[in-house]
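JOB MANIFEST
job_type = single_chain_structure
chain_count = 1
residues = 248
[input]
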Amino acid sequence: MPVLVPGLTGTIINTITVILGSLIGIFIGHRLSENTQNTVLHGLGLVTIIVAIDNAITTQNILIPLFAIIIGAMLGEWMQLEERLEALGRWMERTFGERLGEKDENRLVQAFVTASLVYCVGPLTIIGSVQDGLVNNYEFLLLKAVLDGFASIAFAASLGPGVILSAITVFLFQGGLALLAMLFGGALGGVTADNPAVIEMTATGGIVLLSIGFILLGIKRLRAANFLPAIFLAPAFVVLLQWLGLGF
């Protein structure tokens, strides 16, 4: 496959598809009735929950996601990740809101935060970014780019133009993971889908993603961003257990 920028090709393609999908959604969104927009949003919520559960049940030891979520949530609250992400969204609203034609600050922030979390939580994000950074293999990110592109159309149509700003999050997060993989390639050489650390990271990410599904369905407004540290704690716990000879 052609390589645009070594280690970052998949991230660049993914960022472009999010932007293009968002533009299409913004263009057709005003043509949809409020009921249609809500129904589309609820459909996305249902699919998100199915994907989240599918990821969550892959765990080989439920105690790892459990402790990762508990400790991760405490870390997230201490770091005030939800507030920081919302503050970033409000800054983007002040900077880009008028240009995007979005007058409702809360709606733009919700669109940015929701889309950012959905696009950056999941096995394709982690594995794809690492493989792109390690060996310039962006097959996983290419698949993710297609999925995110279609999701962006639906998100932007129902949540508004704030979704396009999540492209920045995708580029920075996935690009950062790819760069880390390039820097620490030797240590990350075993990052594959059947690696126990990746499995538990995927399962924990599924639980975090479930909170986004609840938000999209209007079931409960959870402080989803504060669960993000759990995704990185899960593989750390696996490595620790392996080092102690206690499984895996």
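[summary]
Residues 9-244 form one domain.
The mean pLDDT is 82.
exit_status = 0
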